[in-house]
Amino acid sequence: MELNMLKRALFALGLATALAACSGSSPSEATAEVTPQQPPLIERSVLFGNPDRFQGRISPDGQWMSFRAPDEGVMNLWLAPKGDINRANVITNDRGRGIPAHFWSLDSQHILYIQDRDGDENWHLYGVELATGDVTNLTPYPGIQAQMVAQSQSQPGVVVVGMNDRDPSWHDLYRVDLATGERTLLAQNPGMASILVDNDLAVRLALGPAEADGQTVFAWQNGQWQPRFTIPAEDMLTTAILGFDQANTGIYMLDSRNRDTAALVHYQLDGGRTQILASATGVDVSGVLFDPRTHKPFAYAEERHHPVWFAIDPDYQKDITQLNRQLAGGASVLAISEDGNYWTVYTDQSDRSPIYKVYDRNTGVLSELFVTNPALEGLPLVKMHGVTIPSRDGLELVSYLTLPQSADPNGDGVADSPSPMVLLVHGGPWARDGFGYSSLVQWLANRGYSVLQVNFRSSTGFGKAFVNAGNKQWGRAMQDDLLDAKAWAVAQGITNEDTVAIMGGSYGGYATLAGLTMTPDAFTCGVDIVGPSNLQTLLDSIPPYWASFRQVFARAIGDPDTEAGRALLKERSPLTYVDDIQRPLLIAQGANDPRVKQAESDQIVQAMKRKGIPVSYVLFPDEGHGFARPENNIAFYAVAEAFLAQCHGGRAEPVGEAFVGSSIEIPHGREFIPGLPK
Questions:
Q1: Residues of the signal sequence (predicted)?
Q2: What distance in Å separates the CA atoms of residue 48 and residue 633, rounded to the nearest whole number?
Q3: Which long-range contacts does 395-398 make (Cβ < 8 Å, 24+ apart)?
Q4: Rg of the Cα trace of the chain?
Q5: HSE-up (13 A, CA, CB side) for residue 526
Q6: How far apart are CA 327 and CA 507, in angstroms?
Q7: Among positive and negative, which fits the CA dihedral 418, 419, 420, 426?
Q8: What is the rounded distance in angstroms from the CA atom of residue 517 to the CA atom of residue 510?
Q9: Following CA atoms 3, 254, 7, 538 in sequence, which dihedral angle do they give, to the nearest 10 degrees?
Q10: Nearest to residue 186, comparing CAs of 165, 159, 207?
């Protein structure tokens, strides 16, 4: 059973595509001087190319294992008998951007995967029938965005999928036959954010659109949607329905109502009785494991700096103790076989390649499935360290510090000497940074930069007060948290006042632009990846299927439908202050980005050109909100590396052949970055 906890589809502005993991190429000789303090350069192709294998899964019947791996350089799906990866065969033949994610049908007869076109996020759902090898587009309707909703053990061979071909703003619910692709309408959406089915795939609940005062949960009764309960506005980002109980008479929720942090609760639909099953102090319950046979939660995770698992059901205490004992750093349980005996586990130590493992309840042993990128073995990777930084108004900012080997030879997380630092800002902003391996972080550290990642206010996982502290604070208190983190790093001797750059994607791109426009002396330079420059045009151009969450954006950023809201959006837009930019800026954009449209990058680049302010602009015509193709990642980071070396003083691998196979275009500012090919 896949453990995506049926969270409401709140499409935040987070960086949609993970900045790619590693490939199997071997490192060449260093291209910069190597001293006892300076390790060899790790090739970009190792850090940003395809991994050897990724996203391992055990089939629900426990007989097979699947994973994504390159075939002719493109990530495809592979299948092997469980425990015999050497017998793996490729079962798809994609030759484009690759397959980004997959999961099993509960009958173990099909593998399902999603795919869009060049980053447009119009996802389609595909099925591979294992008996024949046939691949079927289960949502073959032009221009739609499909959303996988549910499966049921009692109804094998079918899935419930949301599709918006009738109206781009609203997803109707369909029952889809995996063998034929035939769909049957279950519910036409009258304007709900989402519609939920129970364990028998019957339509039961719906989440209404976000309103100024909150969101209503409706129940389907007597052919009508009847209000059941309300999620107040302050709880909309920290409360979610996870699924139904075995009897289909109640639901499990992450619930922050009448408390600050989200607890795991059981809510009885008749009568509304709520029972708290698990809670944490200072952080939300961050993960829940369900028994696939009983649909009952048996464990949960708390995550401050690292995730820690706790048993709810005493029958699982031994397993959770074993799991915690055998894991360190970051770990996630991704899937559980239908008999509950085999758990697919992702383990992550931050300074080595992540490893997929299988936990066997019968033996208590956690055995290795595969290492995602063996090419990283023996390379000079460095540890990530959790730190807590105080904000100027007393908030605790859970953060992560990674130091270059030259500044921290013994790896204890304490800088022996200052180094140039990159403040790496996460997207969302309704997301969080966590502990673990990051190719981007390792690349920066290997080039000689300290890396600081800050969970600023509005980040999720730390309670609703922390999330809501960011409301109407884009470019203000949220930005102050980043400046406070910079000041902390200077005070700790990690870096110097005048040697800090800022970089990020999506909201992190916005923070980069805000940093260079609103505090023009604070950073040496900035790298903006798919960041919005004009908040008014950002909200005017959100995808139609985000309509139900428009009020969430209005509450958090500013209301584009009121005069006061429009004034606030203009005041907080980096474009308003473009004349004040003094430091070098690199902007990267995917032409098909449906969230932060290309116009967001175009308009600030054009404004800077008109003012005669230097800026370099990289565009990928076959990418969206982030870059999926490894050739494009390698090309972009070659440009970013040369840019940072010039403005921030780190080391750099020559660009060389980094553009080969990439669609990279540089519409403006090539001349401002040395070493780029013509």
A1: 1-20
A2: 6
A3: 395/457, 395/466, 395/469, 395/481, 397/454, 397/455, 397/456, 397/457, 397/481, 397/484, 397/485, 398/304, 398/305, 398/432, 398/455, 398/462
A4: 24
A5: 31
A6: 32
A7: negative
A8: 10
A9: -140
A10: 159
**What is the secondary structure of 451-494 as a DSSP string?**
EEEE--TT-SSS-HHHHHTTTT-TTTHHHHHHHHHHHHHHHTTS
Instruction: State whether residue 122 is helix, strand or coil.
Output: coil
pLDDT of residue 330: 72
Name the residue type at position 537: T
Per-domain boundaries in the chain = 53-189, 191-279, 289-297+306-372, 384-633+667-672
- State pTM to two decimals: 0.94
Q: How far apart are CA 424 and CA 440, in angstroms?
A: 9
d(CA 457, CA 398): 10
Residue 10 confidence (pLDDT): 33
CATH number for 53-189 (one of 2.120.10.30, 1.10.3290.10, 2.60.40.10, 3.20.20.80): it is: 2.120.10.30
| Closest by CA position to 648, among listed 447, 471, 398 | 447
Q: Side chain identity at 14, as an amino acid letter?
A: G
Region of 72 please: left (phi>0), alpha (psi -120 to 50) or beta. Answer: left
Residue in the block written with tokens 């308003």: 576
Query: How many helices (H) does the chain have, and how many strands (E)?
Result: 11, 36
Q: What does the pLDDT read at residue 26? A: 30
Pairing state between β 330-336 and 342-348: antiparallel
The answer to whether 90 touches 78, Cβ cutoff 8 Å, is yes
pLDDT of residue 276: 98
Could you tell me the maximum CA-CA distance found in the chain, to the nearest angstrom? Answer: 75
Give every CB contact of residue 487 below 8 A, 6+ residues apart in sequence. Answer: none
- pLDDT, residue 322, reads 84
- CA-closest candidate to residue 538, choices 552, 549, 553, 524: 553
CATH assignment of 384-633+667-672, among 1.10.3210.10, 3.40.630.10, 3.40.50.1820, 1.10.540.10 = 3.40.50.1820
Active site residues: 506, 593, 625
Q: Please report the pLDDT score of residue 316 as a whole number.
A: 96
Q: Which residues pair with 336 in a beta bridge?
A: 343
Cβ of 475: how many Cβ atoms within 10 Å? 25
For residues 508 and 183, give the distance between their C-alpha atoms in angstroms, rounded to a whole number. 40
Listed in sequence order, the residues at least 6 apart from 280 whose beta carbon sits closer than 8 Å to its beta carbon are 261, 263, 302
C-alpha closest to that of 509 among 19, 1, 6, 153: 19
Q: Is 26 exposed, middle or buried (0-12, 13-18, 19+ CB in 10 A)?
A: exposed
Instruction: Give the position of tokens 């035939």.
Output: 182
Q: Where are the alpha helices (DSSP H) in 366-474?
A: 439-446, 464-468
> Could you tell me the two tokens for 406?
């030259």
Amino acid identity for residue 12 in this structure: A
User: Do residues 29 and 76 touch, judged by C-beta distance below 8 A?
Assistant: no
Please give the Cα distance from 178 to 195 (Å, whole number). Answer: 21
β-pairing verdict for 585-590 and 526-529: parallel
CA–CA separation, 655 vs 43, rounded Å? 11
Task: State the 10-residue block means of pLDDT for the chain, 678 residues long.
Answer: 39 32 31 63 98 96 97 97 94 96 97 97 98 97 96 95 97 97 98 97 97 94 96 97 98 98 98 96 95 96 94 95 78 91 94 95 92 97 98 98 97 97 98 96 98 98 98 98 98 98 98 98 98 97 92 96 97 98 97 97 97 96 97 98 97 97 97 92
